[in-house]
Write a structure and sequence with these properties.
single chain; alpha+beta; Umud Fragment, subunit A; eight-stranded antiparallel beta sheet; four-stranded antiparallel beta sheet; 12 strands; 26% strand; elongated; hydrolase; protease; LexA/Signal_pep-like_sf; Pept_S26A_signal_pept_1; transmembrane
């Protein structure tokens, strides 16, 4: 009789464990194929994204649509942005790795920036009026952090095929393509390194909202 009473309890625990494993595997598939979550560790993309935000990132947006100027992208900086070396990405502790997977702690291999130059573009700063120029045309950047200049560093760069020129919206504090002009690769990243597009902030709850796109038009 005692064994008969214990059996349903054992089956119940096995079902719970199995359900947790299946849910974990389904979550892993969804996050690797469709939507992932990332932690924003710095102020480099303010006011759009703030330090401590957790964002949902669509991995499918660029599957059929090419990356365009003005797109905000999350990308793997290994091989291009590594010299900037900020965050916790170099740590290998399993707890840290799990925290990164949950979007609770930053990963310094992963960055979020705005695309200002695509293949064939010439990006220059600055025009006579102090604006960023793309292909010789000054552009107005409504997304810039209030009070920031387009760039205090003067530069001119041509973007080759398969590459992107990226900058943060909070230019005064952003370490981006400009910071690597003298490094191998010149601050350009491969378009194949783009993971996806952040489309919503999900934490903190007070900042829950869908992110709007800001296209940058230039000939």
């Amino acid at each position: 009789m005692n064994q008969a009473k214990r059996q349903p309890r054992k089956l119940g625990w096995r079902f719970v464990v199995l359900a947790i494993v299946v849910m974990f595997l389904l979550t892993a598939v969804v996050r690797n194929v469709w939507v992932d979550v990332y932690y924003i560790p710095s102020a480099s993309m303010e006011p759009l994204l703030q330090s401590g935000d957790r964002v949902l990132v669509s991995r499918m947006d660029f599957a059929s649509t090419p990356i365009q100027r003005g797109d905000v992208v999350v990308f793997d900086g290994r091989g291009s942005f590594e010299p900037l070396n900020s965050g916790l990405g170099q740590l290998t502790d399993s707890a840290v790795g799990f925290g990164q997977w949950l979007g609770l702690v930053p990963n310094n291999n992963i960055y979020v920036k705005r695309v200002l130059g695509v293949a064939g573009d010439t990006v220059k700063c600055c025009s006579a009026a102090g604006l960023l120029e793309i292909n010789g045309v000054p552009i107005t950047e409504s997304y810039l952090y209030p009070g920031d200049l387009p760039s205090e560093l003067k530069f001119e760069v041509s973007v080759p095929q398969g590459k992107l020129w990226l900058m943060g919206d909070h230019r005064d504090v952003s370490a981006d393509s400009r910071s690597l002009l003298g490094a191998p690769g010149g601050g350009l990243i491969s378009a194949s390194r783009v993971i996806g597009r952040p489309w919503a902030t999900v934490w903190p709850l007070g900042r829950l909202h869908v992110l709007e796109s800001d296209p940058v038009n230039a000939p």
